[in-house]
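Appendix B, Record 12. Input sequence as logged:
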Amino acid sequence: MRYLVEPFIIGALRRGRSVEQFLGPLGSPERPGVRYAEVRAARTSYEVYVHAVEDVGHEYFLDLAVFPPFDQDAEEEDFGQFLGMAEDPHDALVLAEECTGAVRGRWVNQGVVQDEYRDFVLAGRPSGMPPDGHPWPALRTGP
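Logged structural output:
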C-alpha cells in the first residue's frame, strides 16, 4: 500500500515523520522540472513546503531531495518554498492541499515520493495527465 490513509498520515506527523506528495511536472520541454509537497513536523507545529526541482532523474536516479532546485537563484541550502505552518497535523494537511492542490488520498511517507517520480519517468513524463489518470494538481496562488 503506497498511499496513506488519514490516520496513518496524522500518526506519521505526530511521530516526527514527514509526508510528501508528488505534484507532477513544471517548466518546459527545454527546461523540465517537477514539484512535490511536504508536510513536516517542527518542534511545536507542522510546516508545509512545496519543492520545485530540475527534472534531472532517470529510472535509476530518483532521489528528488538531491535534484538541483528549479529556481537557480535560490540561495537556500535546504530548498523548498515555505507555505505556512499549523499547530495541528490535520490543519497542516488542509493548508498543504489548499496551497498546492495536493489530494488527501495521495500522501506517502517521506522517501516514497521517489516511487511516484519513477512511475512518472517510466510513463514517459506525461505533461497532461499522470499515469493514474487523475489530473496534475495546480499550484494555487490565492485564497
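The beta strands are 19-27, 32-41, 46-54, 81-86, 108-109.
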